[in-house]
Design brief:
The chain is an alpha/beta fold. The protein folds into two domains: 277 residues, 3-Layer(aba) Sandwich (Aminopeptidase), CATH 3.40.630; 106 residues, Alpha-Beta Plaits (2-Layer Sandwich). It has eleven helices and 16 strands. α1 runs antiparallel to α11, α4 packs across α11 and α9 crosses α11. The two termini are 16 Å apart.
C-alpha cells in the first residue's frame, strides 16, 4: 500500500470514527438563519470563522456588500504544488410559508437517519462536509504537497454577484481546480451545465377606454400574447451539439433514464433552449386599454447556441411583429460550459466516489446553473458533488440522509489527497 493510499484510508477511518462531530457541525449550520434575501451572513460566518480558528486555521473576511461576508482560509505551504479550492455557499433560499413545513426550517434535527431543515440539501450539509474536512486536515497536521483553500461565499441563491464572482474578479482566490459541494446524486457529480439567458421583455401600447377595444388604442397585453408566442419558438430552434460534448450529453441522458428516473421524460432539455415565462405584469384596470406589459423569461441554453445568437433570434422575431418593445437582460448570464471528465480535479472526485462506494461513478450535465460557470470563465476546472435529497431542494421539508453527508465527506478527504499528490 502506498503512503498516499494509507493516508486516504486513515482520513476515511477518522471521519467514520468522528461522524457525530460532522453531523453536529451540519446541524449547527442549519440552526443559523441565512436566508437570501435578505442576505445577512454575519452570524453564520462568525460561527464558521470560530470553528476554523479552533482547528488552528487562519481566516480572512471580505465584505463584498452590506452584511455579505466571504470567508477564506488556506492551508499548505508548498506553493510549488497544485492549489485546490473547496467552495460552498452559506446562503439559503427563504423558507416560505411556515405552515407548510412539518418541522421548524431551522431545526437542524436528526430524525430516523435524516438531517432536517432549510439548506440541508442546498447546501449546508455539503458546506459542513468541506469545513469539517478542511479543519480535520489542519488538526491532524497533514502535510499537503500543495495548497487547499476553503472559500465560503454568502451569495449564490440570488445570482452570486457578491460571492464567487467577486472573489475571483478581485483576485482573492485562485487555484488549479475547484470542488463545489452543491447537491448532486450519489454517484454522479455535475461536470457541466447549460447556459443561462434571463431577460425582461416590455411591450408598449396606447391607452384608451376599454369599451372601445379593440377598435381604439393599442393593447399592450394582447401584443404581449403575440410576442410570447414568438419567444417560445426558441424551443424549436434546431441545435447541433458539438462533437466534443456529445459523450457528456449521452451520459447525462443515461443518468436521467437510469438514476433520476422521474427525469426520463425531460431528456430533450439537454438539446434545446428551454423557455419559462416566469412572471407577467401589465395594465391598470379592466376598463383601460393597457399601454404596457412586461414579462420575465428564464431561458437555459444547451451547447451549440450562444447568448448573442439568442439575442439575434429574439430581435428578428419581435421586429417582425411591428410593435414597440425593449429587452433588458438580468440575473444569470452564461453559455453552456463544462470541465472535461479527464481533468485531474474531475478524476480525483469521480475515482474516489468509486473508491468510497465501490460503485461506478461518472460525471453528468446539470440543466440549471451555479457558481461553477464563474470558475470556468476564469479557466479554473471545477465540478460539483454534495449530499442531497434532490426532491426537497428549494421546497418544503428539506432534508438529507446522514449517511450521504458522511459519504461525501470521505470523498472530499480522499480526493484532496489524490489531487495534490498527483
Amino acid at each position: 500500500m502506498t503512503d498516499k493510499q494509507a493516508l486516504k484510508d486513515r482520513l476515511i477511518k477518522e471521519i467514520d470514527d468522528r461522524q457525530d462531530e460532522l453531523i453536529e457541525l451540519c446541524s449547527q449550520l442549519i440552526k443559523i438563519p441565512s436566508e437570501n434575501p435578505p442576505g445577512d451572513s454575519t452570524e453564520i460566518t462568525t460561527f464558521i470563522d470560530e470553528y476554523l480558528k479552533d482547528a488552528g486555521a487562519e481566516t480572512a473576511w471580505y465584505e463584498s456588500a452590506d452584511k455579505m461576508f466571504n470567508l477564506v482560509s488556506t492551508i499548505g505551504e508548498k506553493k510549488e504544488g497544485k492549489h485546490l479550492i473547496y467552495c460552498g455557499h452559506s446562503d439559503v433560499v427563504p423558507a416560505g410559508d411556515l405552515d407548510k413545513w412539518d418541522f421548524d426550517p431551522n431545526s437542524g434535527a436528526v430524525e430516523d437517519g435524516w438531517l432536517l431543515g432549510r439548506g440541508a440539501s442546498d447546501m449546508k450539509a455539503g458546506l459542513g462536509g468541506l469545513i469539517y474536512t478542511f479543519a480535520l486536515l489542519k488538526k491532524m497536521n497533514i502535510d499537503l504537497p500543495g495548497q487547499l483553500t476553503l472559500a465560503v461565499v454568502p451569495d449564490e441563491e440570488t445570482g452570486g454577484e457578491y460571492g464567487v464572482p467577486w472573489l475571483l474578479e478581485n483576485k482573492i482566490i485562485h487555484g488549479d481546480g475547484s470542488l463545489i459541494a452543491e447537491p448532486s446524486s450519489r454517484y454522479n457529480p455535475t461536470i457541466g451545465q447549460k447556459g443561462s439567458y434571463w431577460f425582461k421583455l416590455k411591450v408598449f401600447g396606447e391607452p384608451g377606454h376599454g369599451s372601445l377595444s379593440p377598435l381604439a388604442g393599442n393593447n399592450a397585453i394582447t401584443n404581449m400574447v403575440d410576442a410570447i408566442h414568438e419567444v417560445r419558438k426558441l424551443w424549436d430552434v434546431d441545435i447541433k451539439i458539438p462533437e466534443e460534448v456529445q459523450s457528456l450529453i449521452d451520459k447525462s441522458k443515461r443518468y436521467m433514464r437510469e438514476v433520476e428516473k422521474d427525469r426520463e421524460p425531460f431528456q430533450e432539455v439537454l438539446n434545446r433552449v428551454t423557455v419559462n415565462i416566469g412572471k407577467i405584469q401589465g395594465g391598470t384596470k379592466a376598463n383601460i386599454i393597457p399601454e404596457s406589459c412586461e414579462v420575465e423569461v428564464d431561458c437555459r441554453l444547451p451547447f451549440g447556441i450562444e447568448q448573442d445568437e439568442v439575442t439575434a433570434f429574439l430581435k428578428e422575431k419581435l421586429d417582425a411583429l411591428g410593435m414597440e418593445y425593449e429587452i433588458t437582460r438580468f440575473g444569470f448570464k452564461s453559455n453552456a460550459n463544462h470541465t472535461s471528465a479527464d481533468d485531474p480535479v474531475c478524476r480525483a472526485i469521480i475515482d474516489n466516489i468509486s473508491y468510497v462506494t465501490d460503485h461506478e461513478a461518472y460525471g453528468v450535465m446539470q440543466w440549471a446553473s451555479s457558481d461553477a460557470r464563474v470558475f470556468r470563465s476564469h479557466q479554473i476546472p471545477v465540478l460539483q458533488y454534495g449530499p442531497a435529497y434532490l426532491p426537497s431542494i428549494h421546497g418544503y421539508n428539506e432534508k438529507v440522509k446522514v449517511e450521504n453527508i458522511i459519504r461525501c465527506c470521505k470523498v472530499y478527504a480522499a480526493a484532496v489527497i489524490d489531487y495534490l499528490h498527483e
